[in-house]
């Protein structure tokens, strides 16, 4: 009950604290019980850590760099979002009493075909499954059966990116400024919080043979090298030519323009403007926004930065996880 109004209705679910929708809390057990397959690859992330980037990367590696298919089909169709169906903004659906329209609008904005577990269960393999759930909310058999690529990013840039995302997708109903948002973030009052347990759980499992832990900042520093490492982890070998083309395909400038991944698809018959009409997507923003390490320096006051440093110091105490906050 100390939640800010913009996430009124969210709950903290079991078994650890986890901020999610009431709808997901009801389905958490079903999601937990999803049967993992040996050829599944999960992309597990806290939001805004580079999920979409690595999802496309992994899909390409697993599918032998099928650029033709990637050009024709939305990433969100090729690679389902495990808990998407339960992240429906309940309040919005109630307000408009048009759940179906909301679903279509979200599918328009996210370029998504909403998936329920049944559809994911039936999907032909190999499945590349995106999830923002921390590993502790996924069935432990996922790690013993399938492969997991976990992407982490420094929290300063995550805060800035997540703040912009809240402005972009207005169903979050976030109306305040970045400083207040950072406070919500640090006190675990945003979707998918708390941040540190999410990352630390995966960090502590990073030596598991079925887990590959990668930092966003390393992808920024050496994309080609990280593609090679991920390919090796997935038991695939790309040719030099494939590697060159894939690195180019994933480079920020190209990625941001790619309509199959940038969530800017606007062509659903009859729904051209619905996203804007119901305030789902702020037309002045972009999902693939800036793609920088250190953008936080353009946003934080020195006072806020000191508070974030202190929050990071406390949460990293006794751990060997360290972040790169500038490149
Ligand atoms: P910014 O908001 O800082 O630009 P997610 O996919 O987990 O939601 O993460 C989104 C963040 O990853 C955004 O960060 C986005 O710009 C960044 N991103 C997406 N594609 C990228 C790419 N090809 N290169 C660098 N950053 C990328």
UniProtKB/TrEMBL annotation:
Note whether DNA damage occurs among the keywords.
no
| Any one Gene Ontology molecular-function term assigned to this protein's record | sulfotransferase activity
GO BP terms: namely: sulfation
Residue ranges of the Sulfotransferase domain?
Answer: 38-319
- Per the record's keyword annotation, is Transferase included, yes or no? yes
GO CC field: cytoplasm
UniProt cross-references to InterPro entries, sorted A to Z: P-loop_NTPase (IPR027417), Sulfotransferase_dom (IPR000863)
Keywords on record: Transferase
**What PANTHER family does the record tag this protein with?**
SULFOTRANSFERASE SULT (PTHR11783)
Q: Which family does the record claim for this protein?
A: Belongs to the sulfotransferase 1 family.
Q: What is this protein called?
A: Sulfotransferase domain-containing protein
Organism equals Daphnia pulex (Water flea)
């Amino acid at each position: 009950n100390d939640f800010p109004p913009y996430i009124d209705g969210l709950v903290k679910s079991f078994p650890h604290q986890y901020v999610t929708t009431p709808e997901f809390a009801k389905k958490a057990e079903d999601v937990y019980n999803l049967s993992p397959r040996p050829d599944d690859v999960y992309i597990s992330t806290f939001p805004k850590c580079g999920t979409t980037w690595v999802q496309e990367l992994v899909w390409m590696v697993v599918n032998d760099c099928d650029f033709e298919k990637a050009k024709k089909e939305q990433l969100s169709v090729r690679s389902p979002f495990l808990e998407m169906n339960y992240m429906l903004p309940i309040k919005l659906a109630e307000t408009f009493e048009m759940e179906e329209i909301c679903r279509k609008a979200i599918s328009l904005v996210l370029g998504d075909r909403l998936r329920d577990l049944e559809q994911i269960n039936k999907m032909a393999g190999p499945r590349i499954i995106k999830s923002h759930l921390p590993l502790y909310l996924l069935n432990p058999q996922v790690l013993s059966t399938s492969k997991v690529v976990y992407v982490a990013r420094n929290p300063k840039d995550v805060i800035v990116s997540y703040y912009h995302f809240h402005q972009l997708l207005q169903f979050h109903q976030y109306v305040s400024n970045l400083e207040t948002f950072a406070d919500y973030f640090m006190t675990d009052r945003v979707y998918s919080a708390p941040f540190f347990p999410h990352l630390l759980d995966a960090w502590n499992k990073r030596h598991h043979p079925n887990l590959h832990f990668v930092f966003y900042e390393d992808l920024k520093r050496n994309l080609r090298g990280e593609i090679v490492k991920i390919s090796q982890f997935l038991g695939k070998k790309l040719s030099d030519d494939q590697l060159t083309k894939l690195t180019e395909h994933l480079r920020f400038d190209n990625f941001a323009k790619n309509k199959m991944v940038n969530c800017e698809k606007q062509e659903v018959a009859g729904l051209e403007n619905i996203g804007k009409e119901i305030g789902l997507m702020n037309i002045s923003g972009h999902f693939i926004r800036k793609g920088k390490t250190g953008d936080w320096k353009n946003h934080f006051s020195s006072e806020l930065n000191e508070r974030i440093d202190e929050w990071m110091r406390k949460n990293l105490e006794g751990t060997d996880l360290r972040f790169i906050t500038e490149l």
